[in-house]
Design brief:
With about 375 residues, the protein is of the alpha+beta class. The chain has 16 helices and eight strands.
């Protein structure tokens, strides 16, 4: 275990201690967040196309290997090459025309790619010829670096190491007179497959941890607007088709009076309490954000009636009479069917309508839920529906 530390000096310099490997190993990884962030940066579609093309290139390489003497001479080796050719093309097509895979499907893709590559390498009749091809494990390693964490990264590289070691031993036995060349191949493989990816992955994980902090509000732990925009991409992952989406905008009534009477410290407590109660009523997978000050928003895939019921429960929950300074809030709701291809634009427009409904609730006296109607100027207070 590597332990990097700075001790207290005679001049009283600050002391800190970083257990680098343990910190790297324990870093939490949110696959959905990684995918949503890549989508928000407009990089997900390009990545998906590249992976699909790479799958087809790998299948083409396997087809060529079937025609090269020594690479597919054994029955088992030819079967595995044919399996590779047959399966890589539909897998590539799925990447090109399908949506981004779920976490489980992504893990299955990694296992498929690693096992198929290892099977092709270990069943060849010319191990010394294909030993440099073990560098193809680096391709899957790059995918893991981008979307998965240290544990899968380590499992992949341990598997690649054992496969390469077995191939190296087989190559030495097959051509002992070429042991120096075979050993040179091994050294180059270690440099390509392990050294650079490990360093890059370690720094990328640490940078990703720090960058994630820019997506969350430090007072409440809710997502800020930037994090909210990235998380909205998860709605497309979960649905895969047009979705019925509702947005709720929540604004605490007369919050300035709370700060003036009880002080800003209690105001911060009230904001944290409000955020906690919003999460109680709208748990994940609803996406919750602190828009700023005492204003919050929730976006969820649900029916309008259900969201109205939850919003009313939240309104009652926020005005708890046992609190030191009971709060009231105005809530505005908007609902729409969003096309997956236009989901970000649809959500932005939806939030605008919910914001209009929230201001209508305030004009009606606050402490109520208002629903945006079918046209841009129509709003209905919940108590008017009963």
């Amino acid at each position: 275990m590597v332990d990097l530390s700075i001790q207290v000096g005679t001049r009283g310099k600050p002391h800190f201690k970083v257990n680098s490997l343990r910190q790297w190993w324990s870093l939490p990884v949110d696959y959905g967040w990684n995918v949503a962030y890549a989508r928000s940066q407009r990089g997900l579609s390009i990545t998906r196309v590249l992976i699909g093309v790479f799958c087809w290139l790998y299948g083409t390489a396997a087809a060529i290997a079937l025609t090269i003497p020594g690479l597919g001479e054994s029955t088992l080796g030819r079967w595995i090459l044919w399996f590779t050719v047959i399966t890589t093309f539909p897998v590539g097509a799925a990447w090109l025309i399908g949506g981004w895979p779920s976490w489980q499907m992504s893990i299955a893709f990694v296992l498929y790619a690693d096992i198929v590559l290892a099977a092709v390498l270990l069943t060849t009749e010319e191990p010394s010829m294909v030993l440099p091809m073990a560098a193809l494990f680096t391709v899957m390693g790059s995918y893991i670096v981008g979307f998965h964490g240290p544990k899968l990264f380590t499992a992949h590289h341990v598997f690649a190491l054992f496969t390469t070691g077995a191939l190296y031993v087989s190559a030495l036995m097959d051509g002992p007179e070429q042991r120096l060349q075979t050993t040179l191949y091994l050294i180059m493989l270690i440099l390509v497959m392990f050294s650079a990816p490990l360093i890059c992955h370690s720094f990328l994980m640490l940078l990703r941890r720090d960058a994630a902090g820019a997506f969350y509000d430090p007072l409440t732990g809710l997502q800020n607007r930037r994090g909210f925009d990235a998380a909205i991409g998860n709605l497309e992952i979960r649905s895969g088709s047009d979705v019925s989406v509702a947005a709720v905008v929540i604004d605490v009534d007369n919050f300035k009076a709370v700060n003036d009477r009880y002080g800003h410290e209690h105001g911060d407590v009230a904001i944290r309490t409000t955020a906690s109660r919003i999460l109680e009523v709208f748990p994940a997978p609803a996406v919750t954000v602190r828009l700023g000050g005492e204003e919050f928003a929730v976006v969820c895939v649900d029916s309008l009636d259900s969201v109205i019921e939850q919003s009313e429960r939240l309104r009652i929950r926020l005005s708890d009479k046992t609190d030191r300074a009971p709060l009231t809030a105005s809530l505005g709701i908007a609902h729409v069917v969003v096309e997956v291809g236009d989901i970000e634009f649809g959500i932005s427009e939806l939030l605008g309508r919910a914001d209009e409904a929230m201001y209508q609730a305030k004009r009606l006296g606050g402490d109520r839920v208002a629903v945006h109607g079918n046209d841009s100027s129509s709003h209905r207070a919940v108590d008017e529906l009963n």
